[in-house]
Amino acid sequence: MNTPLFWSGAALFCLTTPSVIAATQAPAIMSAERLQSSQTIDSPAYFVSEKLDGVRTRWTGTELRTRSGFTIQAPESLKAGLPPVPMDGELWLGRARFSEMSGLIQRADPQDPLWQQVQLQIFDLPAHPGNFSERLDALGQLIGAVDNPQIRLLEQTRGLSREQIDQLLEQTRRSGGEGLMLHHFAAHYVNARTNLLLKYRGYDDAEAEVVGYTRGEGKYEGMTGALIVETTEGLRFRIGSGLSDAQRATPPEIGSLVTYRFNGLTSQGLPRFARFVRIYNSEI
């Protein structure tokens, strides 16, 4: 469905007023609920895309910001050709390269040559009044007119059965991907968490505070064997899996937050098969 009238001069003015892209506030974004493996959904009603392991980004129409409102010091070449309308996307270096992408943003150096490898994968138009199918059509027109190889429209597929989605998830994870995103075709953009946008990974993740360490044994003698962490609910457990040798030699500091993945909960309510992912950064 084409929606060219939405991109009239009047509409563009509405999209780029300060009330929409206030420079001092974190952008209001649409966030996903988790899809559980046992959960039933109307699968063909959802557009499916890869859940990129990058940094969620809002193009305000004039600058790039993280989901917390932090201004990203990206080179002008990356932003060249972007239209003056708000867009949601992901700054992405490739699968399993989140730490590199996060570090690049934190260095705040637009001259860093690593920026040349970054893609800005665009997937939504937060100020568009239509449903997701209509927004996706409008995005195709906009990004199709952008002559910049670093700007991409995130590939979306609709009409898959649940079995096909599960197969795609397994294929994506075997290839090093993080998971899938499912966006209901009729969903309008809301500045909140919604079950019309789902993230599907086959596992859960959460954050916990590092409160101690265990001593390493065997090949890890003299290093950290596991992190002792505590959740906001006061539950304590150990995370030993997922730590690199470098992280065992210099573990996350006491008091820092870490993200971990797990597969459900034990009968005692503790994360099952908890494994370290990364140090949590609230700005990214």
From TrEMBL:
InterPro entries linked: DNA_ligase_OB, NA-bd_OB-fold, NAD_dep_DNA_ligaseB
Signal sequence region: 1-22
SUPFAM superfamilies, per the entry: DNA ligase/mRNA capping enzyme, catalytic domain (SSF56091), Nucleic acid-binding proteins (SSF50249)
Any single biological process term in GO: DNA replication
Gene3D superfamilies registered for this protein in UniProt: 3.30.1490.70, DNA ligase/mRNA capping enzyme, Nucleic acid-binding proteins
Domain DNA ligase OB-like: 216-279
Record keywords, A-Z: DNA damage, DNA repair, DNA replication, Ligase, Signal
Any Pfam family hit: DNA_ligase_OB_2
Record-level Gene Ontology MF annotations: ligase activity
Domain of life, per lineage: Bacteria
PANTHER family for the chain: DNA LIGASE, DNA LIGASE B
Protein name: DNA ligase-1
Organism whose genome encodes this protein: Marinobacterium lutimaris
